[in-house]
Amino acid sequence: MSGPLYTTSTGAPVLEPYAVQKLGFTGPLLLQDFHHIDLIAHFDRERIPERVVHAKGAGAHGYFEVTHDISDLSCAGLFKKVGTQTPATVRFSTVGGESGSADTARDPRGFAIKLKTEEGNLDWVFNNTPIFLLRDPSKFPHFIHTQKRNPHTHLKDADMFWDYLSLNPESIHQVMILFSDRGTPDGFHHMHGYSGHTFKFVQSDGNYTYVQIHLRKEGGFKTLDNATATKLAGENPDYGLQTMHEDIDNGKFPTWTAYVQTMTPQQAEAFRYNILDLTKVWPHAEFPLRPFGKLVLNKNPENYFAEIEQAAFSPSHTVTGIEPSTDPVLQSRLFSYPDTHRHRLGVNYGQLPVNRPIAPVANFQRDGFMAFENQGSRPNYQSSLEPLAYKEKPYNIQQHEIWVGGANTDLSFISELDFEQPRALWQKVFDDTQKAHFVSNVAGHLGSVKSDKVKARQLSVFASVDQDLSDRIANAISHASVQPLKVAAAADAIKFRNRATLA
Ligand code: HEM
């Protein structure tokens, strides 16, 4: 037989893969049988914790290319020259399901990108929707728990699901998207990606611009209707993984155009919505999309576990010229991801090949489990004998925190402002078919809620968007019509923000 020689994990050849050492013909096994123990003990430890959210995914490699000059916005090295290509690893995911769950579940989708720039890794940890269900990070574990399993029954639970959403009406914008056909994308590689959060692009003089990043799929965002998504969930739960893998293998490389929306701090203060409120979009007419790059996926992983499962993305992995805003959800995420990587992959997760930067790493971190590269003989302290070099301070970022501080004061304050964008979706964006699908998708789920209190409260949230929308759902689940929620006026929410001008 040809092929590599079969060995133990220490490289010692083994004659027979199925052999076990026994005492006599039918006797017990021997402790001295290193080959067998090596095999079983490693198998026993194959599983690592799955991601607490976004456990089911699919990924591939490719590159990001700068197509338009945006050096007026950011001094990040990767944007310096049109035509520069940066190696990329991308992982798509559903959010709530376990790692074996169906790819076509009604759920937001993750769209995580690792760009290995010459100035360090830049991760864009995006979703497929431009907004999110909450603007207060302390609600995230509560929200996620209600989308996962009931601690008593271990079943998915529609009462928990809608109880949370109806108690936290700032979720309605995302609910409008989630229960449209956009909530069931056709696979992973036919959808757009959005930063959702506001970030800062910083120029070399320290001036900055608030930005939102959009990745728009060439060929458009394809969706499934509820019946098809449900059928596929049973027939081929790995539909998204499979179709993307096959397309890439067949040379049909998924490609996205990257755009940036920009807003100056002065514009941010005059904007109707809080730019740090993750439940709001920036209207394209007011803040047009400016193209700057393209993302292409052209290579499937050789080994899924090593290259995708072990990939560790974090919004805190950033480079000079791109900074987080003070959006509280983003701020919380900056901590959460590396924290989860240390738990899921270990303290040296950054040394795994998929995460290792192409930029050289030199610092004072040493040891810990799996320290493959321990920085050799270099001193492990701030040494005068062999000092590290330090980069010149690239800029003094101007702070906009006075206004920002006030803007975040009460994240649970619900006002008319929270219903304007969902109402525009229902009244101006959805056509008749999309409206019918939306009503039927919600009715199919909300109809199975046992508590009338929860049903009525969620119908009130829909009535605050549009009375006709709520009545159509009520009718579909045989419920009486309900009144909108009583909420503060939009003007109160706007007044609420501290509008101190920039110094
Ligand atoms: C995955 C936390 C909101 C996008 C994760 C993971 C955690 C987490 C712990 C698992 C990471 C891992 O094990 O590798 C949070 C918290 C949030 C939040 C605390 C809010 C307070 C968001 C938002 C977005 C997002 C708003 C998008 C705009 C993602 C993506 C992944 C992910 C794409 C999967 C990354 C991968 O493929 O490895 N999140 N998340 N998350 N999150 Fe979030």
Describe this structure as you would to a colleague.
This protein folds into three domains: 1-46, Irregular (Cytochrome C Oxidase, Chain J), CATH 4.10.91; 57-137 and 185-351, Beta Barrel (Catalase HpII,  Chain A, domain 1); 413-502, Up-down Bundle (Hemocyanin, N-terminal domain), CATH 1.20.1370.20. Strands 1, 2, 3, 4, 5, 6, 7, 8, 9 and 10 form a ten-stranded antiparallel sheet that branches. With 503 residues, it is of the alpha+beta class. It has 15 helices and ten strands. 30% of the residues lie in helices and 15% in strands.
Which SSEs are present, and which pair or pack?
Layout: H1 34-44, E1 57-66, E2 85-94, E3 109-117, E4 120-127, H2 140-147, H3 158-167, H4 172-178, E5 193-194, E6 199-202, E7 208-217, H5 226-235, H6 239-249, E8 255-263, H7 265-270, E9 290-299, H8 304-309, E10 322-324, H9 328-344, H10 401-407, H11 417-429, H12 432-446, H13 452-465, H14 467-476, H15 490-496
Antiparallel strand pairs: 1-2, 1-9, 2-3, 3-4, 5-7, 6-7, 6-10, 7-8, 8-9
Helix pairs in contact: 2-3, 3-13, 4-11, 12-14, 13-14
The structure holds protoporphyrin IX containing FE.
